[in-house]
Design goal:
Layout: E1 3-7, H1 14-23, E2 29-31, E3 44-47, H2 64-69, E4 74-77, H3 80-83, H4 88-100, E5 104-109, H5 117-128, E6 137-141, H6 166-184, E7 190-193, H7 201-204, E8 212-215, H8 222-233
Parallel strand pairs: 1-2, 1-8, 2-3, 3-4, 4-5, 5-6, 6-7, 7-8
Helix pairs in contact: 5-6
Bound molecules: 2-phosphoglycolic acid.
Residues 7, 142, 147-148, 193-196, 214-218 line the site of 2-phosphoglycolic acid (PGA).
Amino acid sequence: MKLVVANLKMNLDYNSVLEYSKNVNKNIIVCPSYIFIPYFLNGKVGAQDCFIYDEGAYTGNVSPLHLKQMGVEYVIIGHSERRNIEDDNLINQKIKAAIRNGLKVILCIGEGLNEDKNLKLLNQITLDLNDIPLDNVIIAYEPIWAISSFVDSNGQKKEPGVIPTNEQIEDSIILIKETIKNKFNKNIEVLYGGSVDPQNISILKEIRSLDGVLVGKASIDYNKVNEIYEILNFDNI
Ligand code: PGA
C-alpha cells in the first residue's frame, strides 16, 4: 500500500474536524492540530511536530511520550515551515525523542529555490539522521519551492501547478534511498510532497520508486485526499 499523509497544518475548525474525521479514508495518516488528535484515533493519526524531552518545565511544547500515550502513531519532523526556526541539530534531537517513545517519524527534507539539491539532501540526511536507528523512519522529499505555501524572496507566491518533473522526483528519491543504503545499510520508504492534488497524482503515481505522498493544501478537503489515496492505490483513474 502506498502511504498518503494528510498534513492539515493549522487548518479546519472544530465543526469541520468532526465532519472530516467521519469521512476521511481510514488508511490515510491524518496529522491535525494537536488539540484535535483525539477525534482521529479511530484511524491512523500523526502529529505535526514534537519536542525533544518527554516531560518537564517546557511551556507550550508537546511531549512525544504524551503523543504516544494518546494513541498517536506517526510524527512529522523537520517540515520546511518549521525549519525556519529549527536547525538540523534540533531536528536530530526531535527524531531521537520520537523514536525513543515508539513513534514513527516522517522526516521532511528538500532543497530551497536556489540551493544545490544534492548537497542539501546529503547534508540533511547526514545531520538529521546521525546516530538514529532507522527502522521507524520514513522520508518525505519536499522541494520547498514546490510547496503550495511557498513565497520567494521577492514576495511572489508559488505558481499553482508547478512541481518537479517525474524524472526530477525519481532522481531525488533514488539519491535519498541510495545515500541511506550506503551510509546506514537500511532500505527506507520515501514519499513526495509539494502541491500534490487529485489532478497530478495520476502522473506522480508513474514514479516507480515512490512509496507515497504527503499532502498539504489538497488534504484540507477530505474528498480530495480520499481521491488521491484511491488513485494512488487502485487503478481507477
Ligand atoms: P502542499 O503542502 O501540498 O500544500 O504543497 C505540502 C507540505 O507542506 O507538506
